[in-house]
Give the backbone structure.
Amino acid sequence: MRIVAGSARGRRLAVPPGTGTRPTSDRTREAVFGRLDAWRAVDGAEVLDLYCGSGALALEALSRGAAGAVGVEADRVAARVAADNARTLDLPLSVVQDRVSRYVAAPGPSFDLVLLDPPYSLDGPELAQVLGAVAARCRPDAVVVVERSARSPEPVWPAALDPLEPRTYGETRVWFAELASPS
């Protein structure tokens, strides 16, 4: 596993051993970030990477010019690997070891780009609850990205997020949404 583009291009990432994490493939990350770059959603962004695992998504964003990133991971081993990857690459990823649902429900900073790569086993109602809390942490013009199995149904989006056209990459489907305009 490696960083696909930007200042850390080609640098390898450690993957948490035996934690059940499912790293996003290089091909999928390249496609997702190509789309985000076209929308100008990465450069200068404050990024939130939920269920961050190795930190690959946040680190990819930082390598491509994001200003800063927070990664949230419940698994202690995976959180340590993500923090180690950030130190090795000298990229400003702050890793928080906590349950995602608790982190997003608490008061805190807002973000321009939110990346969610939850375990495929995470049920729809829990994901919907997390997305509702995420919407409250989004800045105007924020983009939210949800990665799931291609066999998973579309997430239930809160009214504060407008879904965009999803993309499928092999066994992975990626949904995109933006903060809804106030009516």
Notes: The longest helix spans residues 76-89. The helical segments are 26-38, 56-63, 76-89, 100-105, 124-136. DSSP finds five helices and eight strands in the chain.
